Amino acid sequence: MIEERQYHPLRSALSAEMHLRKLPPLKPGVRMAQILLLPDEDGRWEEIEAHLGLLCAGAANYCDPQSRYFREMIGDTMFRWERHNEFCSFTFIREAAEAPWFDDTPFADVPAGWLDALPGRVLRATRIAYVAEAPDPDSPHSPFAGEDLVLCTVMAGRGEIRSDFRLHADGFGRLLLIDRGLSGLEAALTVQRLQELGNYRNMALLGLPMAQKLSPEVSNVEQRLATLTADIAAGRADDAAALAELSYLSAELARLMAATRYRMSATLAYADVVAARLRSLDVGKLPGHQTLTGFTERRLAPATRTCASFASRLEDLSRRAAWTSDLLRTRIETATAHQSRDLLASMNRRTELQLRLQQTVEGLSIVAISYYTLGLVGYALPGLGLRAHEEIVKAALVPVVVLLVWLGLRRFRRGLEG
User: Fold this and answer.
1) What's the rounded Cα separation, in Å, for the pair 301 and 297?
2) What is the rounded CA–CA span in Å between residue 67 and residue 83?
3) CB 62 within 8 A of CB 114
4) How far apart are CA 31 and CA 5, in angstroms?
5) Residue in 169, 1, 177, 191 with CA at minimum distance from that of residue 78
6) Using alpha carbons only, what angle is made at residue 14 by residues 73 and 45, rounded to the nearest 5 degrees?
7) Would you put residue 34 in left (φ > 0), alpha (ψ -120 to 50) or beta?
8) In what order do the strands lie in the sheet with 69-74?
9) How far apart are CA 109 and CA 102, in angstroms?
10) Alpha carbon distance 177, 281 (integer Å)
11) What residues contact 267, with CB distance under 8 A and at least 6 apart?
C-alpha cells in the first residue's frame, strides 16, 4: 500500500481534474442555458465570486468558488460553475420535456433579479434543447433564420444539430440537438463539445478587433523603419537624428508587442482547441445545408490568419529594427574608427614636428653652451699666463668643447629615455 506521505503534492488534484468539468448523462427533454462571462477590464474575480455566493449559499453542498469548478442542485435545476484563466461559465440544466425549446425553463429556480445583476461582461449566452424529434427545418415556424441555418449530423450520425448562431431578442443564441441514437453519456459529451467549440471560438475571435485596430499603427512603424533603413544605407541620415528615430520606433514596437502578444497567442491557442473539438464531433453533411465545420472554418480561419499575420509582422519588424540598429551601430563605429585614425595621424605628425623642433633646439643648445664654455675658458687663460696666445688656445679648444658638450647632452638624453 502506498502511504499518503509519499504522494506528490498535486497528485490528488490532478487525478480529480480528469473527472471534473463533465456533464451528467442527458436524455431527450433536457433544457439548458449557458452564460460565458469575463471579469471586468481590471481582471478582478471577487465580484463574480460574491454574486455566485448569492445563488449557491443555501445549497446543501455549496463549494467555494475559488476551487474553479463545482456543481449543485438548486431546486430541480442542476447548476455548474466553471472557471478558466480568462473566463468562467454558468450552466443551468433542467429536465422539462414539455417546455418550449428556448424559453426561461432552465432559470426556473434562479432567484429573481440574479441574472440581471450579473457582474462582468457576457461574451456568449446560449439556450440548448435536447429533443427526440423535431419538425422539418424549413418550416416557417422554425426558431432559426433560414438563410443562416447550420444543419448537420454529429457523432457519426447518432446526433443532429441545428443552429443559426445568431443573437436573438433575448440576448441568447440557440442550439438544438436531436437524438438519432445517442446514449446519455454521448449526448452529454456532444453538448459539452459543442459548447466548448462555441466558447473557444468566441475567445479566439477576441484577437481580431485588436489586430484590425492596431494594424494602421504597425503599418506606420513599418513605413518609417523602411525609410530610416534606406537613409542609413545611403548615408543620407544624420547619426544623431537616425538614433533618435530608431529609439522611438523600437519603443513603439515594444509597446505594440506588449499590448498584443498575449491576445494573439491566445487566439492561436483557442483556434487549435476549436479544431480539435470539430474533429472529435465527427461532423457529417446533410444535403442542402451548411455544416458546423464549414460555418466555423469560414468565419474563424480568416480571423486566425489575420491574427497570425499581425503577430508575424510585429516579430518581423522587431528583427528588422534590430538589423537597422546593427547597421547604424556599424556606421557609427566606422566613423569613430576613422576619427580615431585621423587623430592618431595628427598626433604622429605633431610628435614628428616636436621631435624635429627638439633636434633643432638641441643643436642650438650645443652652440650656446659651447659659446659660454669658451667664454669661461677665456677668463681662465690670463691666469694661466696664456694671455698672449689666448685667441689661438680658444680657437683650438672650439672643436673639443663642442664635441664634449654634444656627448654630454647625448648621454643626458639617453638617461632620460632610459
Assistant:
1) 5
2) 9
3) no
4) 45
5) 191
6) 55
7) beta
8) 69-74, 77-83, 88-95, 30-38, 121-131, 173-179, 159-163, 150-154, 284-285
9) 16
10) 13
11) 203, 204, 205, 206, 207, 208, 303, 304, 307
Residue 316 in grid coordinates: 518581423
Cell of 387: 694671455
Q: Which residue has the cell 490532478?
A: 14
Give strand pairing partners of 173.
Answer: 126
Answer whether 0.90 is exceeded by the pTM.
no
Look up residue 321 and give its three cell numbers. Answer: 529594427
- Cβ atoms 176, 101 nearer than 8 A: yes
154 neighbors 281 (Cβ within 8 angstroms): yes
How many angstroms separate the CA atoms of 416 and 210, rounded? 76
CA distance 61 to 52: 14
Phi, psi of 100 (to 5 degrees): -55, 155
Q: Give the length of the chain.
A: 418
The per-residue pLDDT for range 30-89, each reduced to its tens digit, is 999 999 999 987 767 888 888 888 887 766 555 565 677 888 888 899 999 888 889 999
Query: Sign (positive/negative) of CA torsion 148, 151, 154, 159?
Result: positive
Give the integer Cα–Cα distance in Å for 5 and 228: 64
Higher pLDDT, 60 or 184: 184
Highest mean pLDDT among 133-142, 215-224, 382-391: 215-224
386: its cell numbers: 696664456
